[in-house]
């Protein structure tokens, strides 16, 4: 006997006042999902609650159980809609999500984290669904410390998904990880959490590209979901990123899954495998020339085999994504952990240097304010008064911002980094003792 679970994930690019054609695109997304046969839908960047309500109202006749995750000042932008009853929910914010002065990046102002619902599946029992959206800053080139926040996201995401499997639950994880398959963050996600990449398992027969790809080949064969020339919202200027040039975009969106951890009593649980995975929402919305989002979506069909025998965490079934892209398998080895710790230690030192500079600016701004206050008593030219007022406002803002970022945020950032570094040191000791299963 075999059953299946149809899953889709889509970054909706639903930033209020910023995202182009948002109302038209959300309506088209809602209509497309209402006509679909998905059992589980995961959404990211659904920042406006009215947009989520529009999608939910169209889909709820088929998928009556829904959850919008609330976190941060502007919300998490994450939602899950499912066919099966939700018996528990949680929202775990990431400890590091960006800098407060990075207004254009925006990660600081939203509740970046991992949302989770536990559903009661008629065959599998409790299944924990995860949806996430990693920090965007960092790119794919340069030293790893540029991607510190994303690495912290990956480590914390891997921990919560692994914990769910150790509690005896099946895990399905979806979202925009802002990381290509060969990156260190995806190495951490796949190997520490033991997650299986649905796209990699269903496209393992496709070799790495040997020449220039067409945009369609990039989507069909290599799962490109972002920066594709086929997307109407892609920057018209040619990208200088070698990954984008080689693959005609990037694969940043994933559907991952795994079985419960073995405990001696679940040797004959149903086996969950991926039969098919493909990129979706690649066409323009009906009656318009714009795409559904600045990302394409990903769907996967997971098959439940209740006649499977043997332990269900057979790691030989796990196809590492890097083997698909560069034919060079990666593991969360001692070297990978050392690379992470090096990035975090470098970021720690950079945070200290930045805090010192910002506190110097704070002190300088205070001295300048005192000078302005004293100097204003001798101002005899009336038109200079507004100039003094503007300078006082600017210096007050500068002093307050630098005090917060240099002292409060700086200490918070370093304590979060220190916690992760200490966890990795413990984990490395476990690896050195050759007992990773005890971690």
TrEMBL record:
GO MF term (any one): metal ion binding
Membrane topology type: Multi-pass membrane protein
One GO cellular component term noted in the UniProt record for this chain: membrane
Pfam families: Exo_endo_phos
InterPro entries: Endo/exonu/phosph_ase_sf, Endo/exonuclease/phosphatase, Sph/SMPD2-like
KW Transmembrane helix (keyword) present: yes
Location in the cell: Membrane
TM region(s), chain numbering: 359-381, 387-404
UniProt keyword annotations, A-Z: Hydrolase, Lipid metabolism, Magnesium, Membrane, Metal-binding, Sphingolipid metabolism, Transmembrane, Transmembrane helix
Residues annotated as domain Endonuclease/exonuclease/phosphatase: 8-295
Pathway: Sphingolipid metabolism; Lipid metabolism; sphingolipid metabolism
Chief site of localization: membrane
Entry keyword Hydrolase: yes
GO BP terms in the entry: sphingolipid metabolic process
Similarity remark: Belongs to the neutral sphingomyelinase family.
The protein, known as: Endonuclease/exonuclease/phosphatase domain-containing protein
Species per Swiss-Prot/TrEMBL record: Suillus luteus UH-Slu-Lm8-n1
């Amino acid at each position: 006997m075999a059953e299946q679970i149809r899953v889709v994930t889509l970054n909706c690019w639903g930033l209020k006042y910023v995202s182009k054609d948002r109302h038209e695109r959300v309506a088209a997304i809602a209509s497309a999902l209402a006509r679909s046969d998905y059992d589980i839908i995961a959404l990211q960047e659904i920042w406006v609650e009215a947009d989520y309500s529009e999608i939910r109202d169209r889909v709820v006749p088929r998928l009556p159980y829904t959850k919008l995750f609330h976190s941060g000042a502007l919300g998490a932008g994450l939602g899950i809609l499912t066919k099966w009853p939700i018996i528990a929910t949680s929202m775990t914010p990431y400890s590091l999500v960006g800098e407060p002065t990075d207004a254009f990046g925006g990660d600081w102002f939203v509740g970046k984290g991992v949302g989770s619902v536990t559903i009661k599946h008629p065959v599998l029992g409790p299944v924990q669904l995860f949806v996430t959206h990693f920090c965007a800053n960092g790119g794919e080139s340069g030293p790893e410390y540029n991607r510190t926040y994303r690495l912290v996201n990956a480590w914390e995401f891997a921990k919560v998904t692994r914990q769910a499997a150790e509690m005896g639950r099946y895990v399905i994880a979806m979202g925009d990880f802002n990381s290509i398959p060969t990156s260190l963050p995806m190495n951490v996600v796949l190997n520490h959490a033991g997650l299986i990449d649905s796209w990699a398992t269903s496209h393992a027969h496709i070799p790495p590209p040997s020449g220039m790809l067409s945009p369609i080949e990039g989507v069909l064969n290599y799962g490109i979901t972002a920066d594709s020339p086929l997307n109407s919202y892609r920057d018209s200027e040619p990208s200088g990123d070698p990954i984008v040039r080689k693959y005609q975009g990037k694969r940043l969106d994933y559907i991952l899954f795994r079985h419960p951890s073995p405990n001696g009593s679940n040797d004959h649980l149903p086996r969950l495998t991926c039969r098919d995975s493909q990129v979706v929402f690649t066409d323009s919305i009906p009656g318009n020339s714009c795409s559904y989002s600045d990302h394409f979506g990903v769907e996967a069909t997971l098959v439940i085999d209740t006649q499977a025998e043997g332990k269900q965490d057979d790691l030989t079934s796990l196809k590492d994504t890097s083997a698909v892209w560069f034919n060079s398998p990666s593991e969360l080895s001692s070297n990978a952990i050392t690379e992470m710790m090096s990035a975090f230690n470098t970021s720690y030192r950079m945070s200290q240097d930045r805090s010192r500079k910002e506190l110097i600016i704070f002190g300088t701004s205070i001295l300048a304010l005192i000078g302005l206050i004293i100097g204003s008593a001798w101002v005899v030219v009336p038109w200079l008064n507004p100039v003094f007022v503007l300078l006082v406002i600017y210096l007050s803002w500068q002093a307050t911002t630098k005090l917060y970022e240099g002292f409060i945020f700086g200490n918070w950032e370093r304590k979060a980094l220190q916690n992760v570094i200490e966890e990795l040191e413990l984990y490395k000791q476990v690896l050195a003792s050759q007992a990773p299963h005890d971690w």
